[in-house]
Amino acid sequence: MTDSKQPGFDPHAFLTSAGLGKRIVHLKAKQAFFSQGDVADSVFYLQEGRAKLTVVSNAGKEATITLLSSGEFVGEEAIAAVAGNRLATATAITACTALKINRKEMIRVIHEEHAFSDLFLAFLLARSMRTQADLVDQLFNSSEKRLARVLLLMAEFGKSAHPQTLLPDITQENLAEMIGTTRSRVSRFMNRFRKLGFIDYNGRIRVNKSLLNVVLHDQPFEQNAISAALLIAPPGSPKAARRVAKKVNTIKQAPKKPV
Fold first, then answer.
1. Nearest to residue 93, comparing CAs of 64, 73, 67?
2. N or C: which terminal CB in the chain sees fewer CB atoms within 10 Å?
3. 21 and 101 Cβ atoms separated by less than 8 Å
4. How far are the Cα atoms of 106, 115, 190 from residue 50, in angstroms, in the given order?
5. 58-70 b/e with 16+ CB inside 10 Å = b?
6. pLDDT on residue 235
7. Neighbours of 151 (CB within 10 A)
8. Which residue has the higher pLDDT, 178 or 236?
9. Are the C-beta atoms of 170 and 183 separated by less than 8 Å?
10. CA distances, 118 to each of 47, 113, 114, 115, 123 (Å)
């Protein structure tokens, strides 16, 4: 008599296939996963695409809370002890593919499958740490540095071995909402970043690795720009000298940083 072993639970397979209590949904850009005030009856796992969470105040003012990328859950409030209503609206920024898991099935798999509950707990901890970092950023950093951080997060620097430097379509109004400033100031910051070589944009934004200096090192933006030029060409070489001279000339012509 031979023992037949049951195959182990595979969280990846669970999150990439439809089944009892779950189905794959496809959304177009600007289509909502759910809206603020809806009944929280399901959790979504974003398989492909980018999305955002927004809230609207009683006065009608809208604010973007966070941006979401593939591999993240959204709508996790649905598994609270007492099911309530959605606190925010989740909207696709690009075309998205997601797994919609109903509340009952989500609670079941968390309770019964340790591999899945470990994965979900890791996600919740990462989301909590991200939220705390966002709060610290909002309280202590300048709006210019907050914009740099948001652009890096959108490009997935630090999250992926191969960052997506070309960002999905996002308006300056959305960026302004996320960092708590005005669209005109975001426009000035973006022009400044482009002059200093941190980003390129012509319709869509491309983030250069040199923008990391702005967030990682508490130095003036001008010093970061010169450091980035030296990283590209070794100090002492004619090429490095030309790059630094070009950056210095650009800095002199750049508009003064707003207070």
1. 67
2. N
3. yes
4. 22, 26, 21
5. eeeeeebbbbbbb
6. 45
7. 26
8. 178
9. no
10. 19, 9, 6, 5, 9
Residue with tokens 């200093």, as numbered in its chain: 196
Neighbour order of strands in the sheet with 32-34: 32-34, 89-92, 51-56, 62-68
Q: What residue has token string 């991200």?
A: 130
Amino acid at 143: S
- Could you tell me if 53 and 68 are in contact, meaning their C-beta atoms sit under 8 angstroms apart? yes
Residue 217 CB burial class (10 angstroms; 0-12, 13-18, ≥19)? exposed
* Residues 230, 213: Cα–Cα separation, whole Å: 12
Is pLDDT of 219 > 70?
no
Angle at which helices 114-140 and 103-112 cross, to 10°: 110
- Concatenating the DSSP letter of every residue in the chain gives --PPPPPPP-HHHHHHS-BTTEEEEEE-TT-EEE-TTSB--EEEEEEES-EEEEEE-TTS-EEEEEEE-TT-EE-GGGGSSS--B-SSEEEESS-EEEEEEEHHHHHHHHHH-HHHHHHHHHHHHHHHHHHHHHHHHHHHS-HHHHHHHHHHHHTTBTTBSS---BPPP--HHHHHHHHTS-HHHHHHHHHHHHHTTSEEESSSEEE-GGGHHHHHS-S-HHHHHHHHHHHHS-TTSHHHHHHHHHHHHHHHHSPPPP-
pTM summary value: 0.72
Token pair in block for residue 154: 């959108």
Cα 16 from Cα 45, distance rounded (Å): 9
